[in-house]
Amino acid sequence: MAKRQRSLKEHFLSTPRNIDVDDLTSTTCTLEDLPLPSPTQNAQDIWKDQWYSQFDWLHFSPDSGRVCCKICKEKGGRSVYAKEGSKNLKVSAFHDHACSSEHKKLCWALQSGGKVLEKAIKQGQRACDESLSSLFRAAYFIGKQSLPYAKFPSLCSLLASVKAPITASLYHDEKSCADLIACMSNVIKKKNHM
Hints:
Elements: H1 2-14, H2 21-26, H3 39-46, H4 51-54, E1 58-61, E2 66-69, H5 70-74, H6 91-99, H7 101-144, H8 152-161, H9 174-193
Antiparallel strand pairs: 1-2
């Protein structure tokens, strides 16, 4: 009750009024007669933008006066911060949410999920590069030894049988060998002309 009276008193004192002295003597005014500030107005008055830098996961909605957790909401958390949002605008409540096991797990999933995907992409790129490199080496061998392009598929089969990094069957034909040799010869010609 004391908190409500203090809030009403602050609200009353902060709003300008034209009061006539005669009106004060004729009527009595109680706290119940004062207009109450709306809950969203109170939340907007309490909210500090500096909290965004302190808690990067925070999202404050001035319309509802509630605070949400962007991470928990995105990852489908079950706390009040993930659903409708919390009305508790205290730093201690933000700390409690940041230390909650659900929030920590969802943050970890968000961070590690990105790292796992990055790692998988890098591994895929490396495997692709190694496979293409093997194909170019085989084509280079065919061209250097002046062997017929018809030998290229059997050379690719040999590389695959010894578990060399090579595509399963992509670019294992005679035309691919001719294209690879033409590509290498163009690069060599450009380097010689520089």
